[in-house]
Amino acid sequence: MNVNYEECLQACLECLEACNRCYDACLGEENVKMMADCIRLDRECADICAYTAQAITRNSPFVKEIMELCAKICETCEEECDKHDHEHCKQCAEACRKCAEACKKAVA
Amino acid sequence: MNVNYEECLQACLECLEACNRCYDACLGEENVKMMADCIRLDRECADICAYTAQAITRNSPFVKEIMELCAKICETCEEECDKHDHEHCKQCAEACRKCAEACKKAVA
Amino acid sequence: MNVNYEECLQACLECLEACNRCYDACLGEENVKMMADCIRLDRECADICAYTAQAITRNSPFVKEIMELCAKICETCEEECDKHDHEHCKQCAEACRKCAEACKKAVA
Amino acid sequence: MNVNYEECLQACLECLEACNRCYDACLGEENVKMMADCIRLDRECADICAYTAQAITRNSPFVKEIMELCAKICETCEEECDKHDHEHCKQCAEACRKCAEACKKAVA
Description:
Four copies of one chain form a homotetramer. The first copy, chain A, is mostly helical. Chain A has helices at 3-27, 36-57, 63-81, 87-107. In chain A, α1 (3-27) runs antiparallel to α2 (36-57), α2 (36-57) packs antiparallel against α3 (63-81) and α3 (63-81) runs antiparallel to α4. Chain A has a single domain (3-107), classed as Substrate Binding Domain Of Dnak, Chain:A, Domain 2 (Up-down Bundle). The first copy, chain A, has four helices and no strands. Chain A binds chain C through residues 40-41, 43-44, 47-48, 51, 54, 58, 60-62, 65-66, 69, 72-73, 76, and chain C through 40-41, 43-44, 47-48, 51, 54, 58, 60-62, 65-66, 69, 72-73, 76.
């Protein structure tokens, strides 16, 4: 496998983990209402990262289109997480940023 | 396909829809904190219903074990939704109840 | 829910079923080698249909982008299934055609 | 996160990758018919590993039941891959064996 795809796969797996941890933590926060968009985007992002990891490893004929969608969803999730001070949000934003970058590099 | 499997498939697809609608509505409720467990279980239940629908239609060798897990998750989601008065929770609880029953009938 | 989204959801669920049945049947054909691309595309298409059904029902902020991807994958799967005379391929091609159309109508 | 869960997560991600690579390679083998069961089980196993990775990271209330199912599917996929001499089957069988073990240790 091409090294950019390998990096993209690792970034997707790390982003999947960070998004789901952020989702779980957000649901346990005192002010859940403030985290509603974050919960929603964490699920969107974890799901597309899982989907992209499957696409890369099974050599999907649509892998580039899927990576482009993944980059877009990661960027939206990053923007939302960046609004919050929770440690889990900061970690999630960072993982999303790296994953979006890795997807764009792999597509290029 | 066996008629019980056909019924189980339809019940899974309806439950997937009801759970995701309940999830979306819960995230928009005034009191999101009160709905945190419901949000979590709606996602769990929508995901296992999608998984079970895939397993039934692709003739998975593990379809019975997957249906058993689906029944269990549906029952837990039903219990949680039954605690709330929102119309989306009532509809979700009913879809979960039917899906759990259909899974158990298909496994029997 | 918007009527075009409702139609798209139903088309996705029918396409998911047709693709997985075709996948299962292809794996049991005498000449599996001839069906290799069909098996691969059936899985791709069943997976994006399941993904799109989840996105529609949970009111995903990315639903239009996901529908566009779904339309593209459905069209590719339809083209492949159209090459074969098996009844399961014909049914799958028809479900893919309808799903691609419904996705494009919902996005428009 | 508990160290056994962390190990299980890593084993699931490696197994997902190995199963999908084996699936892709099997579809390109000269004798695809001989690999039909392997193709089918690779998809089953990749999907449950992706599902289990999601369950672990989002702190699913059903994580143990999901790990038990994952262990069972991994063992069945390992048995099938063990019948073949292809390098991708050997690697897949090894990843399945490790993943089944990690799931059982995490559940214990």
